[in-house]
Design brief:
By secondary structure, the protein is mainly α. The two termini are 20 Å apart.
Length: 70
């Protein structure tokens, strides 16, 4: 098994889109037509609300999740 490289894993989606835009890189911005019905929309909305009130909270949550042992 080859480990996956994720160089932009700590970057927010909007930062990645801006990066691609300013470098003139192609990117897909269309949302899947099943997305409104998917459960992951609920946690995503929760994270967006959390980020709006505390911009550092989402990054802190992701950082703390990496320290959890399975």
């Amino acid at each position: 098994s080859v480990p996956r490289l994720k160089p932009l894993r700590h970057a927010a989606q909007k930062e990645i889109v801006l990066y691609a835009h300013f470098l003139g890189l192609p990117y897909a911005s269309a949302e899947c037509h099943h997305a409104p019905l998917a459960f992951r929309g609920h946690p995503r909305a929760l994270l967006k609300d959390l980020e709006a009130s505390r911009p550092w909270a989402v990054a802190a949550l992701a950082h703390s999740g990496r320290r959890l042992a399975l």
